[in-house]
Amino acid sequence: MRRLLSVLLAMLLTCATLVVPGHALTGGEVTYDKYSLTVDGRRIVLQSAEFHYFRLPSPELWPDVFEKFRAAGFNAVSLYFSWAYHSPAPGVYDFTGVRDVDRLLRAARQAGLYVIARPGPYINAETTGGGFPAWLKTVPGRARSSEPGYQAAYREWLHRINPIIARHQVSEGGPVLLYNVENEYQVNTDAAYMQDLQDQARADGIDVPITTNDCCDAGSWSSTWASGPGAVQLPGVDDYPQSFECATPDVWGPWGEGLTEKLRDDIPVFAAEYQAGAIDLGNVGYDKCRELTGPAYMKYFYKNNLIQTGATMFSYYMGYGGTNWGWLAQPNDVYTSYDYGAAITEARQLTPKYDEFKRQGYFLESVAPLAKTDAIASPATSGTAALSTTARANPDTGTQFVLLRHTDRAATGTDGTTLDWAAPDGHYRLPAQVKGRDAHVLVAGYDLGGQRLAASTSELLTHAAIGGRDVAVLYGTAGSPGATVLRYASQPSVKVLEGAVRAAYSGGDLRLDYAHEGLARVLVTGGGRRPLLLLIGTDEEAGRFWRASTPTGPVLVRGTELVRSAAVNGDTVRLSADTVAAEVEVFAPPSVRRLRIGQDTARVAAQERDTSGEEEVRVTPTASGSLTGVTRAPAPVRLPELTGWRAHAEAPEAAPGFDDSRWTVADHTTTNSPHPPRTLPVLYADDYGYHYGNLWYRGHFTATGSETRVDLNAITGLRGDYLVWLNGRYLGSAAGGVQADSGDQATPPNPDPGPGHFDIPAGLLKAGKDNVISVLVANMGHNDDWIADDLRFKQPRGLVAASVGATPIAWKIQGTAGQDKVRGPLSTGGLYGERTGWHLPTYPDKSWKAPTALAPGVTWQRTTFRLDLPKGQDVPIGLRFSGDPSPAYRVLIFLNGWNVGQYGGDIGPQREFSLPAGLLDEHGNNTLALAVTAERPTAGPGPLSLFAYGNLRSTR
Ligand code: GAL
């Protein structure tokens, strides 16, 4: 009996892990019509945000990001899958550990998010090769075409990734809702290729609608190929109206109005990638990118897109950007951080952009008629021409949605109007006001739970039926006037609990007039309807609300930093929430008397989470029928200082006597590369199987004695360099080349990429004997293939030309040695220290000495530190370089063996590096190893310290 009970209990616990209460996804068939997607017969407005698992190599943190998406009202996540991340060599694929995409898709489902699966094969994404593995550079045949070499390669990838995606589709009870082929495929017109991607997907069991993301304008794929072979079922369009000029965040919409085009009459408008951040092309730091794409931009552009185009499918790029750890960056566009100025920072912190997503996301989630609307005549804005309106209505319910904004989209002033509104329930004249670079979506004729919202010039955040009454949250700009009209069969009783709200009843209309200030509270009872608690706040107040579903109905919460999930059991509401010391308020059914924070019912049941931090909050009931209390402060955190550094110089490869007998002979005279070699032998690193990170070359030559100069060309990608020695003597360094990066096929390739000319000092050459040139080249990663011309992607890396007068040189090359099975192909390069494990925590460095000033070449510095962060708290840790980054050196940063980033004056503006939990042991010993490559004598990087990005009590 006992055994039976424990089996039953175990079954119950397993079930509990499958579904977060109230976040269960609807399964079944995915269809669509001209209005929206439909899942199992239910229309949905798709509100998705992009996430790159390969930029957060800590699977234990994926649920945190997904729960944060869900808590902002997102119902989907868009996932690129990076071919390069999984495949170190042809035929070799790895989906384990940080590359476990089954786990990723389970985590999305667990958080209640649908998935747009985007396996490419080409993904762009500012990642190395645009997602193409570098070995593909050596495969004959134009990439992104149906040429046989490329076709065999991409089919290999698709047949590995597709079956994984297929088993997580909605039809299988999983989260995958859409499947995206290719990426902004616009220059080629290879319909057979586009068709084959779809045929392969179908053959591998993909049954959801297939989409593709078109780029930018009508010349792109889905407009040209709307039908016939290669046409895609449900295409969408990418829009980046704010550009990537983060240095000028006040410039408004330099790339246009940002209205997503409707591509075909039979499909919904799908904003497949809508700008929600930016790459930092100007190296000004991501805070500026967050400003460029901040709440004002989001309010204006996103709401415009919603109402002017009637779009019902949105995917915002990025929701969380992450880190280009290891050699993940496409070096011409990005440095280590891929924070992207997104709503959630690289260190998983929520920003004001997150609040704006939440305000819009809750609205989309709460108001079902938005999924099906047609354009209608819009209300007049009497008294001013500065403002204008656009409107849509749901043809079944009549519910109207009115966009109110400035006529001149760049206007910065505040203007008021009286809206002359022919709403479904009557004709209303209501005051409204809009500040510059803002936009409001106003609702009329809406069955709001048990209420009838006739019209309002406040925006609707959300509404919830809680304990037999409706609780609705309206909001507007602080100080602006607003009015709301509700319909009743008879005069209701109105009690203003807080704030200054005037109520008047006439002919079935209850009209409330007010200014948006703080959080006003109005209780309406009688009038033939169930009670209504109306909360009317400013934008800021609205942003403080959280909505969570429970099996017994929704709850609303104010004042926590986050609510991940909630459950109501008897007299207790339990919140899985992140908190600081603050007043919190919970709107829950009247039976609830107690509030406990810190427990995630589903996961605790599955014993996946630590409950030691659970907190009983002492609460008191309020006149609004809610409970308030004050949450505890998180325990303070003290981080250790980084001391006890030990250093050791390397680069024996520079010494003439170094044994390179086991290095690869570089003697090819031909290459598959479309870029012809300038000198022979071919020295392109990829041709010898060395694809990522630093490279060494050693060239032996018998000197005539009359040589005067070493002439080299190296292509590294932007931010790269190379260092040169002759017979052990350092000759100097040069910047690596980028080669023609114009993207313009008419532009001839740069004849002299990354040149370096090094005079040979008198007396250094040994005439008639073996002389050795040693070259250390930083391969910064591979170009993308954004315009599908193949040439940019296939640009070689490493030395592309080398000569010492006319004297023949015999070359050897060495890159990464072996594969790091845990960290994957993109973590480790070919430095001596990397080849011999100096970056690994286990390496015995006891004999190393205290650091001194650095000579040109490579020096490693290592230290360890111990952490014991408070349990039940989320304290993301970073590493800060306090000095100014100097072009004299570049630093590879290894945390417990993982290459977490690169620092240096030539790399980018970044001085703080995220050390994500998972790679970081939050309760144990950690090893930091820095590989410093100095181009000239230098003191090296300045003092380093650990810091906390935040400190919350958390159920992360
Ligand atoms: C899009 C592309 C994305 C990303 C973005 C800029 O054109 O599809 O992969 O590169 O631009 O961040």
Automatic annotation (TrEMBL):
Pfam families in UniProt: BetaGal_ABD2, BetaGal_dom2, BetaGal_dom3, Glyco_hydro_35
GO molecular-function terms, A-Z: beta-galactosidase activity
Domain of life, source organism: Bacteria
Limits of the Beta-galactosidase domain: 369-545
Region (Disordered) location: 606-631, 737-758
EC number: 3.2.1.23
Matching Gene3D superfamilies: Beta-galactosidase, domain 2, Galactose-binding domain-like, Glycosidases
Bias kind Basic and acidic residues: ranges: 606-618
Coiled-coil ranges per UniProt: none
UniProt catalytic activity: Hydrolysis of terminal non-reducing beta-D-galactose residues in beta-D-galactosides
Signal sequence interval, chain numbering: 1-24
InterPro entries recorded: Betagal_dom2, Betagal_dom2_sf, BetaGal_dom3, BetaGal_dom3_sf, BetaGal_jelly_roll_dom, Galactose-bd-like_sf, GH, Gly_Hdrlase_35_cat
Keywords associated with the record: Glycoprotein, Glycosidase, Hydrolase, Signal
Top EC class, one word: hydrolase
Similarity field: Belongs to the glycosyl hydrolase 35 family.
Protein name stated in the entry: beta-galactosidase
Native source organism of the sequence: Nonomuraea insulae
